[in-house]
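Fig. S4 source data, part A: sequence.
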Amino acid sequence: MPVNLVAPNAADLHPVPGVEIGIAMAGVRKAGRRDLSVFKLAEGSAVAAVFTQNRFCAAPVQLCRKHLEAAVGVRALVVNTGNANAGTGEDGLVRAFSTCVALARRLDIAPEQVLPFSTGVIMETLPTDRIEAGLPAALADCRADNWPAAAEAIMTTDTLPKAASRQLQIGGRTVTVTGIAKGAG
């Protein structure tokens, strides 16, 4: 059944208090494309996750589970596009963790406070050198209104970026929920 997808209007994507996003070209996917995203989260931010139920899962999924179980408080996300770091075994875990270490050093936080995400081609070695080299530019780009760029940065075979945002009142306070997604279409 065809789905008529519509690209989100950037003006409709509300910044989330305590979240800043930076995007950079790291050359993971291909030269000249913004393929590295960093999300900085304010101390005390609440983070939740839903993971695949498949027993075979990529290194970033395994590491995210482990870091969330450590319950040390997530302060950052690092997302690369172009390489899924899936089917890469122990080397994939080591490389995913090294991206956490590299970002943690720059933010003066523990590596376990960083969640790594990767999307793209499977069974290829994650180019951590490119990711680490792209971190300064991504951090310099951090701002609260970078949601549209982040939605574009995670695209692989997607035909358009996917994002949504809503603001609602709870207990007399405005609560903002904004998210990005990727997938077919």
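Fig. S4 source data, part B ends here. The helical segments are 59-70, 89-107, 128-140, 147-153.
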